[in-house]
Amino acid sequence: MLLARHASKVHGEPMPNGTLLTSPEVAQRLGCSVRTVHRLVTSNQLIAAQKLPGPNGAFLFDPAVIEMFQRQRAA
Predict the structure, then answer these.
(1) Which residues of 35-47 are buried (b: 16+ CB within 10 A; e: fewer)?
(2) Could you please report the per-residue DSSP string of 10-24?
(3) If exposure means fewest CB atoms within 10 Å of the residue's CB, which of 12, 29, 63, 70 is most exposed?
């Protein structure tokens, strides 16, 4: 739940340095497929910082949230 609370604070807001990760970049960091990243988002296990407009809008992720997610999975 810590991950969800942190991400909800940044949802829709730009990161301080403006750097967000795309789903393919997150998949590479996590060692999984882009489809798995999307499944993690739809199951609320991973929270996107932003979703671009439209039905096929891309998910964008805060690098700090991804690092926290990796640490929680490793524990």
Answers:
(1) eebbebbeeeebb
(2) HTTSPPTT---EEHH
(3) 12
